[in-house]
Design a protein that fits this description.
Layout lengths: L1 H15 L2 H22 L3 H26 L2 H25 L1
Helix pairs in contact: 1-2, 2-3, 3-4
Length: about 100
């Protein structure tokens, strides 16, 4: 997920000149990658909690854009992926609690 966010942010920057997309995708993508490393290190609950918060930030940032534009691509897709990820990560946090 982190790598996809990096690519999406870079694409938005080069296509539309969106520095905000580049910065936000970098921050949230780094949170996802960091959470994966934390999970690999054996701290499952903490890693999934970070990923759940990153998913929430992703939905919070992209869902309003999708509603505002009325278009599914790209904001609606990213918000949907964030929502699915958030549900999964919240489930995993609950498992490890």
């Amino acid at each position: 997920m982190g790598g996809l966010l990096y690519l999406g942010g870079a694409f938005a920057f080069f296509k539309k000149g969106s520095k905000a997309s580049l910065i936000a995708s970098g921050i949230i993508g780094t949170a996802f990658i960091g959470s994966g490393l934390i999970i690999q290190g054996g701290q499952n609950r903490n890693g999934h909690a970070i990923a759940a918060l990153a998913s929430l930030a992703l939905v919070g940032g992209m869902a309003p854009r999708a509603v505002k534009t009325g278009k599914f691509m790209p904001a609606g897709l990213v918000a949907s992926l964030g929502a699915v990820s958030g549900i999964y990560q919240a489930h995993k946090v609950n498992q490890w609690w």
